[in-house]
Amino acid sequence: MSFAIIKTGGKQYKVAEGDKILVEKLDGEAGQEFDFEEVLMVSNGKSNEGKNSSADSSSSPQASSLQVGQPLVGGAKVHARILEQGKEKKKIVFKYSSKTRYKKKKGHKQPFTKVEILKISA
Length: 122
Description:
This protein is mostly beta strands. It is 5% helix and 54% strand.
């Protein structure tokens, strides 16, 4: 199974084709397609699972090829589509100091973008 590790919004995500993930807010509208340019690692091919030993899988033509960037993989892109823009549930921030009549209540809704991964190209 091929996968990639991308960097967006100061975080890193492991993605595969067909995945739907929530990332920090990106500019764009629902249905718009774009590319993630910051790709840290790409793996193409089959994973080495099951009964085969590591000596057998290294010589097989279906062994996975792993490209690790330093820090980015050159020419690699992850093509994605924006599914929706939204906000998470409200988180309450409450500050309180005893004996001084100090109270502050504040709410925060973190914006997010739901993205579907369409294609990984190395």
